[in-house]
Design a protein that fits this description.
Elements: H1 2-13, H2 17-30, H3 35-47, H4 51-64, H5 69-85
Length: about 90
């Protein structure tokens, strides 16, 4: 998964979020046990404004690494963004 992961990180730094997400998804296909890849897919999805997709991938990451403190902070960030988008 490493070439895809590296490419995804580079694309993310260039703010090419859709391209980065594609690369991270390819990495996830090759190493579905790596929670970090799911977190990266979620980060891209957040940047693309696709919060439901982000939640789906954060939940997948939780399955593999439920005690990751960085994952908890990402979930809190997502919840804040979801609250802003919720209709009043």
């Amino acid at each position: 998964p490493y070439p895809y992961d590296s490419f995804g990180k580079h694309a993310f730094q260039l703010r090419e979020y859709a391209l980065a997400r594609e690369a991270f998804m390819a990495a996830a296909e090759r190493a579905p046990h790596r929670s970090s890849v799911y977190k990266q897919i979620a980060d891209c999805s957040i940047e693309l404004g696709e919060l439901k997709v982000a939640r789906e991938y954060l939940e997948k990451a939780l399955l593999w690494y439920p005690h990751d403190p960085r994952l908890s902070s990402r979930i809190r960030r997502l919840e804040r963004l979801e609250a802003k988008q919720a209709p009043l």
